[in-house]
Design brief:
- This protein is mainly alpha-helical.
- 71% of the residues lie in helices and 6% in strands.
- The chain contains four helices and two strands, in the order ββαααα.
- Strands 1-2 form a two-stranded antiparallel ribbon.
């Protein structure tokens, strides 16, 4: 799991979605994003903050990124809850059988 400023990005597909969001929604050129990724000191350095520090995004765009992280986190929680409910439904009949 990669943490981006308090938001969790679970997998490479989520990281790919984040890069797509940056490119498609915020119009950040792929070359700029590649340069920032290359300049990162550590793999967990927050891309959003680096993009802002290098002047590739405005504060408004930074806020949009944080909003995107929040929405992704909410979707992740919803998914986990749905999985937990599914497991609960499968387990309950077994528990009832042993009562």
């Amino acid at each position: 799991m990669v943490t981006e400023n308090g938001a969790v990005i679970e997998s490479n597909s989520s990281l790919t979605e984040f890069r797509q969001f940056l490119h498609e929604e915020l119009a950040i050129p792929k070359a700029d994003l590649a340069m920032v990724i290359e300049k990162r000191q550590q793999s967990n350095d927050p891309l959003a903050m680096l993009l802002w520090q290098y002047g590739f995004i405005s504060l408004e765009q930074l806020q949009r990124i944080f909003d995107w992280f929040d929405s992704q986190a909410a979707l992740g929680v919803k998914h986990l809850l749905e999985r937990a409910e599914g497991k609960k439904a499968k387990i309950c009949p077994l528990v009832a059988a042993f009562r």
